[in-house]
What does this fold into?
Amino acid sequence: MTDKTITPRVLLTPGEVGRLFRVDPKTVTRWAKNGKLSSIRTLGGHRRYDKAEIDALLAASGGEG
It folds into this structure.
């Protein structure tokens, strides 16, 4: 029997992602609508972004991580 540990995904709000990229949260939402970022929807319909993906994009763009 193997022991599989599940690490929870860290999800960020549009405001948190916007602060990291220094853009307005509406811009982050627009990026998701255009397919530049992937997002999930909460039960309330709010967008959330995977921190690992955001960190990778920041690193690729030369931003802070």
The longest helix spans residues 51-61. The CA atoms of residues 12 and 51 lie 6 Å apart. The beta strands are 11-12, 40-41, 47-50. The longest strand covers residues 47-50.
